[in-house]
Each structure stands twice: as C-alpha cells, then as structure tokens.
Amino acid sequence: MKLRPRRLSSLLALLALPAAFFCAASVSSAQGRRGSETPKPKLVVLLVLDQFRADSLSRFEPFFVEGGFKWLMRNGAHLKNAHYTHATTYTGPGHATLSSGTYGHTSGIIGNRWYNRAANRTESMFFDPAASLLGGVTTAPKDDDTSPRNFIGNNISDQLLLSNSKLSKAIGISLKDRAAIMLAGKLGRAYWFHEAAGGFISSTYYMKELPEWVRAFNARKIPDSYYGRKWEKLLPETAYRISRADDFPYETDYKGLGRTFPHTLADKTGKPTTEYYEAFTATPFANDYELEFARLAIEREGLGTDEHPDLLGISITATDIAGHAYGPYSQETQDLVVRTDRQLADFFAYLNKRFRKGEWLTVFTADHGGTPMPEYMQSLGFDAGRIKKQQIREAIDAALNARFGPGQWIMELEDPGVFLNHDLIREKKLDPAEVQNEVGKAVLSVPGMARYFTHSQMRLGNLPPNPWAQMFEKTFFPQRSGDVLLMTKPFYFWGSYGEREAGSTHGSPYAYDTHVPLIFAGPGVRAGKYEFFADIADLAPTLAALLDINPPAGNEGRRLNEILAERR
Is a pLDDT exceeding 60 seen at residue 33? Predict the structure, then answer.
C-alpha cells in the first residue's frame, strides 16, 4: 500500500519523537488506571451466620435497626438469589465451599462426618489424631475437630497469605470447631469455644500454646457471668404473630433451657458445667461473647493496621444451635435473629470507629438454611416426617438377604450415605454395582424417600439428567462417600435428628436449605439489589478479585463482575 504525502509526514513526525515521551505516556496511563481503582481494604470481615435462611432477612426486616442487617442490605451488593448447589447442606461443606469456591467432589469435605473404613468408625470431618487441643482440654474424641488436614486444596485465607508470604494475617473465630478451622484455612489461626474448657481454645496444628491475650480473655469467665440470666423476648408480644406459637410440643428443652420463653441459663448442679456451656451457645448471650472475642482479636493481633490486607472470619453459632432446638418458624428463631441484628449493628459501629471509610469490607452469608420441623408441616397438612435408620436398615437387609443370601450388609448409615460391607460383597463374588442398585430400590420402599444415586453411577458419570443428580455429584468423593446416596422427599429427613422425637435440622438439596443471604459491602463493591442467580462458590473468587489475588486452587465459582465497581 502506498502512503499519501500527508500520512507519510505524520508518521515521520511521530517516529521522530523521543523514546522518553512514549515511556512517560505509558506510565501516566498506567498510573491513571491504578488511581481509578478502589484501594484494597485493610480488613476483610467474612461474616457467616450458621443456619440462616435468606428469607430471615425479609421476614424479620420490619424489626431490624438501621445499623445492622438494614445497613448491609442498603449499602452492599445484596444478591437475593444465592444458593448452594450441593446436596449436603451442613456446616462443614458449607464453610468449605464459601471460603474456597470448591465443592466436596474436589475438597473432600462431603459432610460434617463420614465413615472411615480404615478405622472402622465414623469420624468428624476435621478429626486429626496428630493435632492436640489446647486450652486445658486433654482429650480429643472422634467427634472433635482439630485441624484442616482433611481439606484438599486451599481457601481464601490461605490464598491471601500466600500472596505476600504471610505478611497478611487470617483468623477464624466461631463457637464451632469446624467453622473456625475452615475459615482460618491451613495458614491462618483458628479459635473456637469448647464446652469442656468454658472458653476459647485452638489446637497444636495452629500454635504451640494459646496467646496471652486469649488466656486472659478466658480468665474473665464471661460465660459464667450469664449464669441465672433469662433469655426473654425483646419485642412486644404482637410482633411474634408472624411466628409459630411459643409452646409447640416438638421443640426441645435444649440442655435445660426449657421449651418456652423465658429461657433460663442455669444448671441442676447450681454451677456452670459442660452442659451449662452447651446451653449458653444456643442463646443470644453467646453472640455478645463471640463478637467481644472478635473485637479483641482485631486489637491484640493488630488486624488492619498496615498495607497488607488481613482477613477475619467470624461464624456466628447460636443461630444454628437454637435453630436445631426450636426450628426456623419458632419465636426463638425470630427473637434471636432480631437480637443478632442489634449485636451486628454494634459490631459494625465498632469497625467504623476503628477504621476509616473504605478501609474495611465485609462479606455476609450463611453456611446453610434450615428445614421446617416436620411435625409443624404435618399440622399444616403437608407430607412430612422423620425417617429412622432402623427403617432403612430393615429395608436393605430384607432385600439383600432375599436376593444374595444372609449377611451383615451394612457397615454404617451416615446421612446421606449407606456404607456397605465390601468384604462380604467380595466373598460372595457379587457385582458391587448390582448390590448398590438393589440397596437403592429397597430404600425407595421407605416412606419419605425420593431418590438414590449409587457409587458406581457417580464414578462412571452415568447420572440421570436432573438437577438433583448434579447436586449429589458435587458432594461425591470416592474415598469418603457412601456406596449409595439417599435423597428424601421435601420436609423429610433422616440422620441424627431423624432419630429424635423433637427438634429440626438441615442437609437437603431443597431451597429451604440451599437459599442463603449473600451481601458484599465496602470498597470496590457496587451497592444494589441483584436478582440473578449466584452460586455460593462465587463468593471466594469475587472476594479474591476485591483483594487483587488469585482465587483458591480448586475454585469452581465465577467472579461476580456485576457487583464490582472496578473491573479488574
């Protein structure tokens, strides 16, 4: 192509410019782009409410104060259609997914507990015999969690610390061990409440001994100061008309708290005991205690004091303990949510006083929702119920004995899995896939059961084209999952709460368990209400974008660019 004289002269003039001009222009442009970006927050508060359904924000909003949940909803990016897309909506898998963007098929965290074939027993998800408990607790039974070693991959706390060779800090706090551990990850520090200690502890995985400030905090014996206190209703009696009657026979008398208001914190021995401390964790007083510990952690660990962002994960536990005892439609749940709102308003006010605007960011969500109490649903005319393990066991034994001959077929039943006797199957020279299918067909005869998925189906990818199969696939890990995975009908459940005659639980793939709040509030976030579908796995990569770091290794979520003020 021939250049016209005017174009040629222009090109020659441009080439004659000194190289420094181009360098300066490039630097100026880059600085302009950086200057337009929102700076990283000094502190990220990852706030998780255990067993908190998304509809709790809408149902109880008329009773909220301005500085708590309302502040989050008005000043943050409120994703109103956020769900977990796995089938095991429990504390362990929930915290694993929200903090890592990873579901159990990658992380190995398929439930709160699973059957360990090598040890021939069911163990807690983070049980680790190589890590001992600190804080005066000398034994760690198989139901105690002590380290994150069973988690495969890393989480957002780990990724933040990896990004700058641990110049940042990450701390996980909860009244529950598994929640604190999963928020802290493998490189941070986890602190949790232990009933045997009556205070916050940790494990030798994280440190050799508790820091002095933690020991001093425990020496104050704050839970003991609530002995004899009454949990009474905060609101006028008319406000509780939107909830079920207070005296419902299938609510529990949790650790002596009583079934109805007022709930008195005391113990039959006349002094604080392990059972007293367990009761304490179900009350709003536990929220004050946990948030006070969080404030002290910020101050004594110097969180948010330099240019390297820190992360504080807080999982509020009382909403889950009370939810199990009284159910999501109880007056206790309503009162606890309203009180939590005020407690969070105070905590946010503390953060605003300690940090300047734009220096701290919060992400608010939950690890799962909550299942309505089946007896309550029955009273309203719904098909609902509790399924006993004995019903499942009898159906399986009858079918397998008739088809393949007598034997001890079941090693363990651990929701959602049936763990079969592999030695017996080999002895009888049976096809495992055929046995698994017989188990599934047998279980469908149990009232309340809806579907089953076998280990062979999962391993080979031979699944039916429905969303339930995909949700179970996300929670399937070959070395830890059962041989057959069971799915109940809506408003039915089995497992530990299926064995009881009162209380409620969670753990299903249904919306009442999967639909949770998700709100980002702070620098870099475009505030507003968003109706599009969001997977909770999207939390970690979006937070990573706000921190300008890579997402965790196993992340399968997406960055929610729609809510980011700066597209990075």
Answer: no
User: Is-catalytic flag, 475?
Assistant: no
What count of other Cβ atoms lies within 10 Å of the Cβ of residue 556? Answer: 20
Under 8 Å between Cβ of 453 and 81: no
Q: What is the pLDDT of residues 431-472, one digit of tens each?
A: 999 999 999 999 999 999 999 999 999 999 999 999 999 999
Q: Which residues pair with 462 in a beta bridge?
A: none
Task: Calculate helix-pair angle for 284-300, 212-219, nearest 10 degrees.
Answer: 150
**Helix, strand, or coil (residue 35):** helix
Query: Where does the pLDDT of residue 142 fall: very low under 50, low under 70, confident under 90, or very high at 90 and above?
Result: low
- Looking from the CA of 509 toward its CB, the CA atoms found within 13 Å total 22
Q: How many CA atoms lie within 13 Å of 313's alpha carbon, on the beta-carbon side? A: 39
**Residue listed under structure tokens 């995975």:** 485
**Cα angle for residues 249, 250, 253 (degrees, 5° grid):** 85
Strand partners, 418: 413, 484
Residue 34 has pLDDT above 60, yes or no: no
Higher local confidence (pLDDT), 10 or 561: 561
Domain coordinates in residue numbering, the chain: 48-373+511-521+534-563, 385-493
Domain 48-373+511-521+534-563 and domain 385-493, same fold? Reply is: no
pLDDT of 18 > 60? The answer is no
* One-letter-per-residue 3-state SS of 502-537: CCCCCCCCCHHHHECCEEEECCCECCEEEEEEEEHH
What token pair was written down for 172?
């996980």
Question: Which letter does DSSP use for residue 222 in this model?
Answer: G
Closest Cα to residue 521, out of 314, 361, 341, 343? Answer: 361
Q: Write the CB contacts of 552 (distance below 8 Å, at least 6 apart in sequence).
A: 99, 100, 101, 102, 153, 154, 155, 156, 158, 159, 540, 544
Q: Using CB atoms within 10 Å of the CB of residue 485, give its burial: 0 to 12 exposed, 13 to 18 middle, 19+ buried.
A: buried
Q: What is the CA radius of gyration of the chain?
A: 26
CB 207 within 8 A of CB 173: no
What are the tokens at 3?
Answer: 């250049």
Residue among 89, 91, 122, 340 flagged as catalytic: 91
Dist. CA 228–CA 226, nearest whole Å: 6
At the topology level, CATH places domain 385-493 in Gyrase A; domain 2 (3.30.1360)
**Strand, coil or helix: 452:** strand
**101: alpha, beta or left? (left if phi > 0; alpha if psi -120 to 50):** left
Beta bridge partners of 386: 493
Fold assignment, 48-373+511-521+534-563: Alkaline Phosphatase, subunit A (3.40.720)
Phi, psi of 264 (to 5 degrees): -95, 130
- Please, are residues 91 and 531 in contact by the beta-carbon 8 Å criterion? no
Residues sharing a CB contact under 8 Å with residue 521, sequence separation 6 or more, in sequence order: 71, 72, 75, 76, 77, 361, 362, 363, 364, 527
For the chain, what's the residue count?
568
